[in-house]
UniProtKB/TrEMBL annotation, chains A, B:
Protein name: Ribonuclease 3
Keyword presence, Membrane: no
Physiological role: Digests double-stranded RNA. Involved in the processing of primary rRNA transcript to yield the immediate precursors to the large and small rRNAs (23S and 16S). Processes some mRNAs, and tRNAs when they are encoded in the rRNA operon. Processes pre-crRNA and tracrRNA of type II CRISPR loci if present in the organism.
Gene: rnc
Family: Belongs to the ribonuclease III family.
Segments traversing the membrane: none
Enzyme class: hydrolase
Keywords annotated in UniProt: Cytoplasm, Endonuclease, Hydrolase, Magnesium, Metal-binding, mRNA processing, Nuclease, RNA-binding, rRNA processing, rRNA-binding, tRNA processing
Source organism phylogeny: Bacteria, Pseudomonadati, Bacteroidota, Flavobacteriia, Flavobacteriales
Length: 246, 246
């Protein structure tokens, strides 16, 4: 036992912080921290492992892209049991689109972990999505498919993905909520404040009030997105009343 | 116990045969046979389940396609540790190409299980690959990712996929083996016979002899493919000698 405790203790202070951050983000314990480090290592560092193989996030990004594709496919298969093949394919494309993956990477603020020789501001916007895919690849390698699926389902799909919205049935939860409040003489308010903390990317937090009572919250890299997130959560609270509007 | 035995016994005679065939093909026990039945149900039957959802292989094909993509990605990631993202993507495309999937479906003779209103001969060649994908989807749904991966690795990738050949390093194992035999004064012979059994698709079996001793066997839907399969297996027997030719 003491032996194992010593191994655990031997992690450096910066590794300890990284370990805690990753654990919090993925929702379970990382086993091999070096894989997650690789997921955030940029090619510009030109690192190699002890066998001479390139050590950066690109291969993990490839693996993560593939895992993401199958996990989203499985999610949609279960979530939309009456959808045909064409619909499922189309919905998956929307969820794993470059634009959407960049948003996910931004909202998880993955750029803060990137180690790079090139200046982060010069890397281009796709880095957010690439890091997201690399993180997914790292989780798969470290903990296997089921944990990887758990991460994507709990931390991504259930929060950020909205089938009704992707389908075009609901274009704005905020708009819908305001429409409902006017018809039902309720008072809806949004309180927005910058909440960047010690992160590199600007973040916004939103509190949504109905009749002066906090109903839900949202946090994202844009004000609009944070409001929509809070509005979507409030939508589920009043769903039965709101659905009468649809 | 008697209760469960009775349940087991209650499977019909045709189900019993199907169960045994599937079990042999996938290499482990199917749990929910109805999923595999769905994987071999053609749209032309226009069946629906008790919730009114279409009951045919199309949704499973979608799921299987996605699973196949991630399992092949994971296989290549491990198998070719020095390959970059571009190489891995290209190799994966070759393995999961329509043409290759059709070959896999043919070699597993999946068409024999298809239940269809349309005549099988009128369905077109892609049915082989589509059924293969649907089978993969069924295995995933029934037994989960790890069993699905086991099936693809053991029954497909290790037998039918050849990285050296896909890379273009070796274009013909038969040719290579004959070249080696001539240089080393060994006598290589192929014995080919039709071995269709009670299957719908014509099959060929091959025995490969070196100096009148059976070294390996192959079986496939074309003579050439069966010979290559046997030659590849023989290649691994004499690999160290043959590699001196490369």
């Amino acid at each position: 036992m003491k032996f194992f405790k010593n191994i655990k203790k031997s992690r450096s202070a910066s590794d300890e912080i990284f370990y805690t951050q990753i654990k919090k983000m993925i929702g379970f314990t990382p086993k091999d921290l070096s894989i997650y480090k690789q997921a955030f290592t940029h090619t510009s560092l030109q690192l190699k492992d002890d066998k001479g193989h390139p050590l950066n996030f690109e291969r993990l990004e490839y693996l993560g892209d593939a895992m993401l594709g199958s996990i989203v496919a499985s999610y949609l298969y279960n979530e939309v049991p009456d959808a045909n093949e064409g619909y499922l394919t189309q919905m998956r494309s929307k969820i794993v689109s470059r634009e959407h993956l960049n948003e996910l990477g931004k909202d998880l603020d993955l750029l803060q972990y990137l180690i790079s020789r090139t200046s982060k501001s010069k890397i281009g916007n796709n880095i957010h999505g690439n890091l997201f895919e690399a993180l997914v690849g790292a989780i798969y390698l470290d903990r296997g498919f089921n944990y990887c699926s758990k991460f994507i389902n709990k931390k991504v799909l259930s929060i950020y993905v909205d089938i009704e919205k992707l389908e075009g049935k609901i274009t704005s939860y905020k708009g819908l909520l305001i429409e409902w409040s006017q018809k039902n003489k309720r008072n809806v308010n949004f309180e927005v404040y910058e909440d960047t903390g010690n992160q590199n990317v600007k973040h916004f937090s939103v509190k949504l009030f109905v009749d002066k009572k906090v109903i839900s919250k949202g946090r994202a890299t844009s004000k609009k997105r944070a409001e929509e997130m809070a509005a979507k959560r409030a939508y589920y609270v009043f769903q039965s009343e709101i659905e009468m509007l649809l």
